[in-house]
Amino acid sequence: MITRSQRNTILFSVPVILLSIPLIAMQFSKNWDWSLLDFVAAGVILFGITLTINLILEKFKTTKNRLIMILITLTILALVWIELAVGIFGSPFAGS
């Protein structure tokens, strides 16, 4: 059984690993060009989702409810990320 501390360590290391990918890629490719604002925006989104998932795991007791809520949260993450990347909805949020 994983303790709460171990779960939090694993859970909050995921955004760090995901944010390190563009940081490392920028060292080897000129095509990957993130500014500080890009890293801050991605960090806020990823750590916000991680915190939300952590709260879901603490508040919901059944596996079914946890999975449903986490899938909804990850769907929202995907839609926001896609909107920021390519603007599928054409909102001012994406810079259109």
**Large-scale geometry:** flat
The stretches of 5 or more residues where confidence is low (pLDDT under 50) are none
Q: N-to-C terminal Cα separation, in Å? A: 47 Å
Largest sheet: none
Give a quick rundown of the structure.
This protein is an all-alpha fold and 96 residues long. The protein is built from three helices and no strands.
Can you give a write-up of this model?
- There is one protein chain.
- The protein has 96 residues and is mainly alpha-helical.
- Helix content is 76%, strand content 0%.
- It contains three helices and no strands.
- The chain has helices spanning 4-28, 36-59, 63-86.
- Helix 1 (4-28) packs antiparallel against helix 2 (36-59) and helix 2 runs antiparallel to helix 3.
- The chain is flat and about 45 Å long.
Layout of secondary structure:
Layout: H1 4-28, H2 36-59, H3 63-86
Helix pairs in contact: 1-2, 2-3
Spell out the key features of this protein.
single chain; about 100 residues; mainly alpha; 3 helices
